[in-house]
Amino acid sequence: MLRKLLLGLAAVLVPAGMVAKAAEIKKLPQPDKASELMQLIDKRHSSREYSAKPISEQTLSDLLWAAFGINQKGTRTVPTAMNKQNLNVYVVYQNSIWTYDAAANSLIKVSDEEISAYIAKQDFVKNAPVNLIYTGSDKDFSAFHAGAAAQNVYLYAADKGLNTIVRAYIDKDELKDKLHLDRDEFVIMNQVIGYPEG
Ligand SMILES: Cc1cc2nc3c(=O)[nH]c(=O)nc-3n(C[C@H](O)[C@H](O)[C@H](O)COP(=O)(O)O)c2cc1C
Question: What's this model's pTM, rounded to 2 decimal places?
């Protein structure tokens, strides 16, 4: 009876497979962080401090290319499910809303509407000169696409001394409306980019 009780207790406390896994541990070598890429990955972080210092068109072009540009193979800088390349990157820059056209390396104006109230639900966002809004229509994979694009921007920011953060605390319904998204297209998240204070 006691044995049964103890076995039952062990089953509750020890997750399945834990004992077998714990018995076989392979200690790995230290990560080799010598390369520039590894150092940038190490430096990547989210910032909640932005100055109003403007971002140049060159920097904007570079960071948008990092996010979702066309690479040397002719696909995108991030992988997309079945190579559908179905992520959209909206850019709030210089008081207008734009959409990024990677093939033409251009911004196409969506509107001059003021939408900061729907993005800037946290005060630190208000100063930032660039806000990206990722949208997609793939229920399974859009979040993955946006996450990969955002990570590229994080690494670009780490390289260039920019601050960035991804944010889900935005008004997605209002933004869907203001960006004139099609019925199946939805807002995934926001990424803030700017220079640090001082
Ligand atoms: C999907 C997602 C949504 C997030 N939303 C917010 C947000 O709305 N506001 C915020 O301040 N940080 C947000 N963050 C940033 C996280 O808080 C941050 O990544 C986490 O604290 C780890 O910090 P690190 O990015 O510097 O490693 C979000 C991160 C992710 C991945």
Answer: 0.90
